[in-house]
Amino acid sequence: MGKVGVYGSSFDPVTNVHLWTASTIAHRAKLDKVIFLPCANGRIDKQMKTSNEHRWQMLKLAIGGNPIFEVSDYEINERAGTSKQYTWYTMEYFKSRFPKDEVYFIMGADLLEDIDNQELPVHLRWKFREKLIANHKFIVMARDGIDMLKIISKSPLLRNYDDGNTFHLIDKGLSMEISSTYIRDEFAMGGEPRYLLPDQCYQYIVENKLYQKSSNS
Fold it and tell me: Which of 47, 102, 164, 210 gets the highest tally of CB atoms within 10 A of its CB?
């Protein structure tokens, strides 16, 4: 039996910290594969700044040469525009794709905080959260100022599945932050964020004139 991590994000654009984080998690959690899962344009909870195609191409450039990294178009092609735009369906898909492996959803502690938060606006609440937690496994990355154990203990849903197997908490050495927003802002202002993302992706952005103030990409 192998171990597979599903790493979803907008990757708008993918950064060196995305890659470093995925590599560190693979090492710490002993994963055999990390699947980068770019989310689709049109989601109500995220506003993309460039197209699915551009983000897909940048991810392919970024992960080339690493045999344990893979990029999946499940959300941007197979699930885009359907009613199944929830993590539950995503994890069911990957669980069926890797039936003999343990499949983990990789997320930050901020998402752990939201997953059972019913005070969020209705459109931002996690759908099928009970089934999701009951039937799947999670690797949770620390975020500054967020106490993951406290979040789990305060939530009846989360603590009832805190059996030492459902949640793999990684709380050391993942505090490095380079946001995609920062990189986009640097490009928009004519800055030089070259060494914050893979060189092939930097060149791709320059050649395709992405994230410029006048760009509607």
Answer: 210
| Token couple for 101 | 């492996």
How many alpha carbons fall within 13 Å on the CB side of residue 165?
A: 7
Q: Under a CB-based contact definition with an 8 Å cutoff, are residues 42 and 141 in contact?
A: no
Q: What is the dihedral of CA 179, 182, 183, 188, to 10 degrees?
A: 150
Question: Lowest-pLDDT range, 37-46, 61-70, 98-107, 167-176?
Answer: 37-46
- How far is it, in rounded angstroms, from Cα 167 to Cα 158? 9
Question: What are the structure tokens assigned to 32, written together?
Answer: 């055999």
Predicted pLDDT at 138: 97
What is the per-residue pLDDT across 130-164, written as a single tens digit (0 to 9) for each? 999 999 999 999 887 889 999 999 999 999 999 88
Are 30 and 2 a contacting pair, CB within 8 Å?
Answer: no
Strands (E), 95-176: 102-108, 137-141, 167-170
Smallest CA-to-CA distance from 16 within 170, 144, 199 is with 199
Label residue 41 left, alpha or beta by phi (over 0 means left) and psi (-120 to 50 means alpha): beta
Cis peptide before 13 (omega within 30 of 0): yes
What size, in residues, is the chain?
Answer: 217
Question: Which residue type sits at 79?
Answer: R
